[in-house]
Amino acid sequence: MGYLIFAGVIVGVLAVVFLISMIWIRSKNAMVVQRIRSEYGMVPEFEGDSRDFESVKDYYRMFPSKDVMDDITWNDLDMDSVYKRINNTQSSIGDSYLYATMRDQSARNLNQVEEHVSYFSQHPSERLEIQTELRRIGKITYNGCLDFIHNPRTYNEHLNIIYTIMRILAVLGIAMIFIRWELAIALISLTAIINFAINESYSRKIQSEAIAMGMLVAAVNASRAIAKLNLTGFEQQTKTLTESNRVFQGINMLSGFAIISASTFNLASSPIGEILGAYFLLTPLSFDILVKRFNNHSDAAMDLYTTLGYIETMISVASYRESLDNYCQLTQSDVLAPVVAGVIHPLIEKGAIGNTVTLHQRNIITGSNASGKSTFVKAIALNTHLGQIFNTCLATSFEMRQSFIVTSMAIRDDIESGDSYFVSETKSIKRIIDEVNSHEYSFVVIDEILKGTNTIERIAASASILNALQSKPCFVCAATHDIELTEMMANSYHNYHFRETIEDSAINFDYTIYEGPSNTRNAIQLLEFMGYDAKLVAIARELAEDFTIKRTWNTLDS
């Protein structure tokens, strides 16, 4: 009679634990769905630090494109911030794939991109279901997922005999409840203590691999659910997911026990799973089987990874579009320069002044600091890139041909290499000339060309560089303070400018592009408004006027 009571208590406790687990899982899933729904179409918030951000580069580093946007151009255009602005992915897989996509300047099938992005914009229920599945994969810094796919490891082969003996004792303890329950309690207690210790030690040893495996198993589950949706227009992606899933049949049965004790991010984890996994030493057994499965099917795992990453990227773009007040699709044609209307910088949305202009193949833009010229050249470069990869431009209309974007803008001293500002700048521009020679058509932006040297050599070298670029297959937009360049290159470069006005001791900008070179000279007037000594201002004005007439500088008396 006693053993029946004991067995009943055990069954009752397990039933209560199971019920609590189910309630907990359902509650957590409901909160996840609500959060995903509320985040769509909003400006994303990057939750992490620089270390977390470095982790998103895993896929890009492992599979770099031959037409990659290099680090200089990426940093010039502040693409880290653009990435964060667009990123509404739910998993580390989506994070990494989106980043790699934004570094890749290869030509896309924009009709397909538009079809896929539009699908998620127009099918909120399917999108939410997919995002919920992807959310279960989780976001983990340095998860090692890609490394695990290509270089999985095992740990417990020499301990398999010990693990097997302890599992037999665990089963024997349960079976003895119906024979001698007093002895069963002792055996269960002793076995539990030993097995829990073994399980904890093993779990710590495989922690990094367990995180990677947990993500992959969750990815398999997500891909299975997504494949069943048979999304219209995603036939190739559905086929890939279905074929990849076929080789991973049955892993879900093992995954909970193989991963739960070593990973806390898995939303499907539950107390009862942890207890059973530890008591029966299911973690070492299941983990070893799963490692061998992924070892044998690494190509299928990689196909699954990239397909889910692509789907997440398309959803992210749909969310990004929803968050914008205005955008347009890129019109790709054979024009040699951007033809834009109402274009703005992607990171300056609120209150931004849209510019409308038909640029020429070669352009020089002048204007004072803070007048808007640097923001404008970045805006056309960024919108060209976003149009080419996501068919999305922040403008009323945007027309441009397929181009490889390369820039030289935010140059600074390279302390590690010992390069000065000017040396870094010359290297940066040399790389532009090299890139232009190796691509069918390039999109070149140079801001403050060669400002790290003296005026005479800067203007001479700058003119020579701009002259060399005019014979190359590229669009050129050079922003500069050097009015001399607008005169020297007048026969081959078209001039535009941004202007400012000074009123009531305040400088005002309209951030609008105008035809022709800059003809405003407000710097000396601003000195006067700022309260500089009248004699100092008068000398500065006289020197400037004399230089304008004579084109040489007067010698100042001491």
Describe the structure.
The chain is of the alpha/beta class. It folds into two domains: 2-323, no CATH class; 330-520, Rossmann fold. 57% of the residues lie in helices and 9% in strands. It has 23 helices and twelve strands. It has helices at 2-39, 50-55, 58-62, 71-76, 79-86, 92-103, 110-122, 124-135, 145-150, 160-175, 181-205, 207-228, 235-246, 251-259, 271-279, 282-296, 298-323, 373-390, 421-437, 455-469, 483-488, 523-529, 534-550, and strands spanning 330-331, 339-343, 355-358, 362-366, 397-399, 404-408, 442-447, 474-480, 494-497, 500-503, 506-509, 514-515. α1 (2-39) crosses α8 (124-135) and α13 (235-246) packs antiparallel against α17. The longest helix is centred in the first third of the chain and has 38 residues, at 2-39. Mean pLDDT is 87; it is low at 260-268.
Concise account of the structure shown:
By secondary structure, this protein is of the alpha/beta class. Helices cover 57% and strands 9% of the residues.
Q: Average pLDDT value?
A: 87
- Rg calculated over all Cα atoms: 32 Å
Q: Based on Cα principal axes, name the global outline.
A: elongated
Distance between the termini: 115 Å
Tally of helical runs: 23
Portion of residues within helices: 55-70%
List low-confidence stretches. 260-268
Main β-sheet, spatial strand arrangement: 6-7-8-4-9-12
Q: How many domains comprise the coordinates?
A: 2
Q: For the report, how would you describe the main beta sheet? A: 6 strands, mixed
β-sheet strand percentage: 5-15%
Tally of DSSP β-strands: 12
| Helix-strand category | alpha/beta
